[in-house]
């Protein structure tokens, strides 16, 4: 198989991915319309304005959860299918379940009794999560949203990052960094964001959160997880040769069935299939953003 093989990826998505990810693929790579993506996202919406029903594959509960809201907003943003009514409803739901300090918890206890990944554990005391608050707030800032939930979440992020002196080594710290990086990428106060990044971004290197060897096994995060696009804030932390090596590795990580996969625990066959469809679209997006698509591949996208 050439790397990457667009036809094989398209066949994998058609055979295995959710309707949502098929619509993402169509929108991003085949001049698809925004409305079908919006409608596919809306199918996971609850009456309370939040999202559930395994929109985020690791949570199979029907009730609304912050990770499902995060994924809904991310997909609406990346596909330019942004919908003010859906976004407002999601922000209103986040307000209704917000921790006392503001922001959002990682997961809500309403998932109890439903299938979910073993790491989906509500934190004692219901604190704001750096991961989820940062990811959601960053996407909302990218779209210039104005909402009371975002105002409080922004203050939570500034306060927590000002107090941050360390992060957990290994994958856990990487996930926290994802929230901070998306927030810092898009929050409007650019001078403040860059100043904070100079301090907290260095923790990626100091705590060895990024696996610089593309072949390192296990549940690790590579530089492209922190800096997937050329204008990502964290891109400046990595040598060009390192980024190029990881792009080579990503291009050649396409499996014989045409899709990409992940390096964390596959706890559920349904979740595994859902994630593979989502991540196959993501892999193609990252390769295209970095001008790493073969000429033949690029021609098929036109």
State the order of secondary-structure elements, H for helix, E for strand.
Answer: HHHHHHHHHHHHHH
Give the helix level as a range of percent: 40-55%
Number of helices: 14
The overall average pLDDT, rounded, is 94
The main pleated sheet reads as: none
What structural class should be given to the helix and strand makeup? Answer: mainly alpha
- Give the termini distance in whole angstroms: 22 Å
Poorly predicted runs of 5 or more residues: none
Overall radius of gyration? 19 Å
DSSP E strands, number: 0
Question: Quick recap of the structure?
Answer:
The protein is 54% helix and 0% strand. The protein contains 14 helices and no strands.
Describe the structure.
It contains 14 helices and no strands. With 302 residues, it is mainly α. The longest helix is centred in the last third of the chain and has 21 residues.
């Amino acid at each position: 198989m050439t790397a990457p093989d667009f036809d094989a990826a398209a066949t994998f998505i058609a055979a295995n991915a959710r309707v949502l990810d098929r619509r993402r693929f169509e929108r991003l790579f085949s001049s698809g319309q925004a409305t079908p993506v919006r409608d596919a996202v809306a199918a996971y919406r609850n009456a309370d304005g939040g999202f559930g029903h395994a929109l985020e594959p690791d949570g199979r509960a029907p009730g609304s959860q912050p990770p499902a809201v995060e994924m809904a907003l991310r997909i609406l943003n990346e596909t330019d299918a942004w919908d003010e009514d859906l976004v407002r409803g999601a922000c209103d739901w986040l307000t209704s379940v917000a921790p006392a300090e503001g922001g959002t918890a990682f997961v809500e206890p309403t998932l109890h009794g439903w299938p979910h990944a073993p790491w989906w554990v509500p934190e004692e005391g219901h604190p704001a999560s750096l991961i989820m608050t940062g990811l959601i707030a960053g996407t909302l800032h990218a779209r210039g949203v104005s909402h009371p939930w975002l105002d409080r979440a922004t203050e939570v992020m500034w306060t927590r990052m000002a107090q941050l002196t360390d992060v957990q080594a290994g994958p856990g710290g990487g996930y926290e960094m994802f929230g901070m990086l998306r927030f810092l990428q898009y929050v409007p106060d650019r001078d403040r964001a860059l100043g904070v990044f100079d301090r907290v971004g260095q923790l990626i290197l100091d705590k060895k959160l990024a696996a610089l060897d593309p072949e390192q096994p296990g549940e690790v995060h590579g530089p492209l997880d922190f800096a997937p696009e050329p204008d990502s804030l964290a891109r400046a932390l990595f040598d060009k040769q390192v980024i190029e090596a990881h792009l080579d590795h990503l291009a050649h990580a396409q499996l014989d069935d045409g899709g990409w996969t992940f390096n964390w625990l596959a706890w559920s066959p349904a979740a595994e299939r859902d994630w593979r469809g989502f991540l196959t679209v993501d892999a193609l997006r990252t390769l295209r953003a970095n001008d790493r698509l073969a000429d033949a591949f690029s021609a098929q996208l036109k």
